[in-house]
Design a protein that fits this description.
The chain is α/β, with parallel strands linked by helices. It folds into 4 domains: 88 residues, Chorismate mutase (Chorismate Mutase Domain, subunit A), CATH 1.20.59.10; 88 residues, D-Maltodextrin-Binding Protein, domain 2 (3-Layer(aba) Sandwich), CATH 3.40.190; 74 residues, 3-Layer(aba) Sandwich (D-Maltodextrin-Binding Protein, domain 2); 88 residues, 2-Layer Sandwich (Alpha-Beta Plaits). It has 12 helices and 15 strands. The strands form 3 sheets. Strands 1, 2, 3, 4, 5 and 11 form a 6-stranded mixed sheet that branches. The longest helix has 43 residues. It starts with a helix and ends in a 6-residue tail after the last strand.
Length: 363
Amino acid sequence: MSEENQDRSLDKLRKMIDDLDVKLVDVLNERAKVVVEIGKVKRDAGTPIYASDREQAVLKKIAELNDGPLSQTTLNAIYRELMSGSFALEKPLRVGYLGPDGSFSHQTSIRKFGASVEYLPLTDIHAVFDAVQRNHTEMGVVPVENVSGGSVVDTLDQFIDFDITIIAEVMAEIHQNLLANCPPEEITAIASRPEALAQCQNWLASQGRTSECIPVVSSARAAEMACNEKGLAAIGSLLAAELYGLKVLFENIEDHPGNKTRFFVLGKTPPQPTGDDKTALMFATRNRAGALADVLNVLSGYGVNMLSLTSRPSRRGEWEYNFLVEVEGHRDDEPVAMAIKEVHDHCSHLRWLGSFPRTTCCV
């Protein structure tokens, strides 16, 4: 094809795109007008603006409609931004996360809720729970477990003190990077969140750096420190490097290439059942032999599949523990509801933490 014919073909195709863009903008704004009406109904009824069950239904519908060539990941990202814009039209939302800016919690929050939501960085995980409890934020995003580092105990322990509901879970790929403003040979210490340091143990050992690690409250806080302290490096996100003006000395230093962290979204109003849910419970067993086995047998007897079981000190007495369990199903599902009712007989206390849609893909 001659250069002249090529230019004509491109002009024709670009004109087609321009015409489609006109239609897209019109349709998106028609959709937005309906969103405004939905917002009025929700405000009158006192219904929460964000509903993870509705979000799940929309993304599932889009997946069923998608015949390509756009990937589902691309469409999910587009629709998350559409939903973010919808939140702003219905009622501005504020989401709290473990800060400062540039943390993996910040990065995950943006990917989950989009650019049209207000974000509030908080000093620690306790502060995220507290902000939701006091209605300073509508929601909070906190890390709960990593595929290699295990549970985030700071998050699990807060459920002892706060009456907060888990309304959604988020899965995010986590790539750790060594950030600094000095050459590697001038680094005298490396700071990050303990879980981030644990995710890079093999790499740190191979570099002879394990004795130089400093645990801090968040990876973004480490990046903030590294931009001001000579010889200090941070392990954190590329977003943190950009925000704090740090050089990326080494990328993807996590021990496992498939490194993922699961986050909980905290709120006040539980979502409706979707047919593919999880339920989280916290309980302490009665002080008798076999009490924990009795609880697990009840779950098994009703055909309720247990997905995880973690213990944490109760802080109410020496050698007393709370157990946090996640099971398949929603608390409104009959087997789960019956199991929870019977489990009470074997517990000194039991609290439902939330039933929320299961997620299988990363944001």
